[in-house]
Amino acid sequence: MSNYLDRLEAEAIHVLRETAGQFERPALLFSGGKDSICLVHLALKAFRPGKFPFPLVHIDTGHNFPEAIQFRDRLAEQLGEQLIVRHVEDTLKRRGIPDAKGKFPSRNPLQTHTLLETIEEFRFDACIGGARRDEEKARAKERFFSVRDEFGQWDPKLQRPELWNIYNGKIHPGENVRVFPISNWTELDVWNYILRENIELPSIYFTHERTCVLTEHEQLMATNVFISLDEHDTIVNRLVRYRTVGDMTCTAAVESKANSVEDIIEELKNTTVSERGATRMDDRISEAAMEDRKKGGYF
Amino acid sequence: MELLRFFTAGNVDDGKSTLIGRLLLDSGSISTDIIETVTRQSKVTGENTTIDLALLTDGLRAEREQGITIDVAYKYFSTDRRKFIIADTPGHAQYTRNMFTGASTADLAIILVDARNGITEQTRRHTIISAVLGIPHIVVCINKMDLVNYSEACYEAIKADFSKVTAALDLNQVTFIPTAALSGENVVHSSKQMPWHTGKSLLSFLENVSVQPAQLHDKARFQVQYVIRPQTEKLHDYRGYAGTLWSGKLQVGDEVQVLPGAFFTRIQTIEHNLKMTESADAGQPVVMQLEDDIDISRGAWIVPGSELPEVSDTVQGTICWMDNTPFRTGAMKLLLQQGSLNTKASIKEISYKIDIETFEKSPSDDALKLNELASVCIRTAEPLVVDSYKENRNTGAFILINEYTNQTVAAGVLERNLQA
């Protein structure tokens, strides 16, 4: 078996089955984005004709694209799998945490509170996520089985050695493991896999016309009720698509006429900007922004 | 397209991160926004206008601050011919365990030698680790050739020295390439400065080297990871054994034995890719149903009924101790994990230690410290399928876990069955 997609797929399925075999209460963190949709597809291959040995869990910031939320609900229903949704809004109200402020009020860092609460509520001992090592340099260091302490923290300097096809998921009560089955996939691998497997995606990944505000970094942010516009803003109508599906408040669109998965692959082969660089406002804060968020319990 | 996984070993001083940075940069795999970030971070002065290529790979704040690699970083790039996964591993002795992690899944090792210094303790250590882990291909990059005036004599002398190091080792294919990573000579493009080198550039070699596993035996080895039991009306009695076929081939109708337990039965169905299929090949994740209703749980092996593997609870293996707390014979409760099998285990005897820089054997003092290599006798509560690691990298490997701390404390390779 030498085809690279077959090898990546086999590795991911192996990791999913190890998670099911080693943990009592795993969960699959589902965002409605392409990476977690691929995880669901891989879970079908890993566990059918049985049911998934875990629920799909979505931490809803309240700032999601409606297309992604509709897609999420429809997918869970079609598959007949359990979907658990927990809202950042509820956490903020209940705990009196101030909401995100500013022109583009990103609840991205605030998700961590809700995620940790949800882990506690259901006593999840393993959370499967679609993060990839090619996304960001702190992620490039993370293991497939990433152990978090009882506060959800990641200690990058004290990671367990992880060898061969052997995954040590032993933990103490209160600890949990974040599992990243597609760690070794790149953005282009994900798209090639979507093409090969004919996987359905939310419509916002493909070209559509959208009214956007042009930010100071020349990024295109869709106008929506969560961001505050003023008379200095440049409002434009463009043909755009999304490279990642995050919050409407912190995910930028890219100009694109790509109408099919083939078009997107062609576009990505010719692009010179990284996925997070093109679309995420939150990683621009500092060189170690992701490392710091992960240490604090982020996905 | 094929996939090649390789790891690089060496110190920052040898130009390891620079070499990787060069591979990524010259193959067009770095996005402009990342180049901008790195350029900003590089202390670009009027005299020095090159960007610090090492910043492309060192990901943690502490690594950037100290200018060293602490943990493995994985990097990805592809050319028209192949896709590559790089495990960039630390060269320092104190991070040997992280090097093991990065090397364990590699098809190929790149060992860097500074042309000015020749073979060092570090070169020997990395070569020995590559030998212990049975890496199929080794590429020795004799780097910083620009600092020895691209001297062929210097290159040849280092080559001869390296062959002395490897004489005692059971190494697979070794290839030498003279490089100057900073300027890119022989990394992606062939060097004009070294016309005497008639071999390929590094990237060209990586694109063409065979990725077929060198010594994997062809006997079927399937390990159960998870039992699928839908318990629906339609699939009331369905019991599917989910796992990966690590080597060999299995077909519907084959007589198989289930281990441990020594039950013989036949394969009733094989499912791959959500479809029924007639056979499974090495590397494929599949679901199998068996003709007889046998109690089989996670960690069990399904092997050909005609050619039984050795099964034993007493084995000899080589381990690398990876925990800060030293091991003392009899003082620590251990678990051994072989794939999906987890069983209580104890190290009965440290037969001898292996010097990680000279490969010399020395008598044991009944203790193992961090990063030490030793040949040990292990007893397990449940019997293991004993494939020597040399014959099967997928089934001949194991880890040891401290039962109290849950930490992975050792990585090991199986050598032989000690049970008569």
Characterize the structure shown.
The complex is a heterodimer of chains A (299) and B (420). Chain A has 299 residues and is an alpha/beta fold. Chain A folds into two domains: 4-189 and 288-295, HUPs (Rossmann fold), CATH 3.40.50; 201-284, no CATH class. Chain A contains nine helices and ten strands. Chain A has helices at 4-22, 34-47, 66-79, 88-95, 111-122, 187-197, 261-269, 275-279, 289-295, and strands at 26-29, 56-60, 83-87, 126-128, 145-148, 176-179, 208-214, 220-222, 234-241, 254-255. A six-stranded mixed sheet of chain A has the order 3-2-1-4-6-5, sandwiched between helices. In chain A, strands 8-7-9-10 form a four-stranded antiparallel sheet, with no helix packed on it. In chain A, helix 1 (4-22) packs across helix 2 and helix 6 packs antiparallel against helix 7. Chain A is globular and about 55 Å long. The mean pLDDT of chain A is 87. Chain B has 420 residues and is α+β, with helices and mostly antiparallel strands. Chain B has three domains: 2-208, Rossmann fold; 221-304, Translation factors (Elongation Factor Tu (Ef-tu), domain 3); 310-417, Translation factors (Elongation Factor Tu (Ef-tu), domain 3, Beta Barrel). Chain B contains seven helices and 24 strands. Chain B has helices at 16-26, 32-41, 61-66, 96-104, 121-132, 152-166, 202-208, and strands spanning 2-9, 73-78, 82-88, 108-114, 137-143, 173-178, 221-228, 240-247, 249-251, 255-259, 263-272, 275-277, 279-281, 285-290, 301-304, 310-321, 327-328, 334-338, 341-354, 361-362, 367-368, 373-386, 397-402, 408-417. In chain B, strands 2-3-1-4-5-6 form a six-stranded mixed sheet, sandwiched between helices. In chain B, strand 4 (108-114), helix 5 (121-132) and strand 5 form a beta-alpha-beta unit. Chain B is globular, with a radius of gyration of 24 Å. In chain B, 47% of the residues are buried. Mean pLDDT of chain B is 88; it is low at 44-49. Chains A and B meet through helix 1 and helix 2 of A and helix 2, helix 3, strand 2, helix 4 and strand 7 of B.
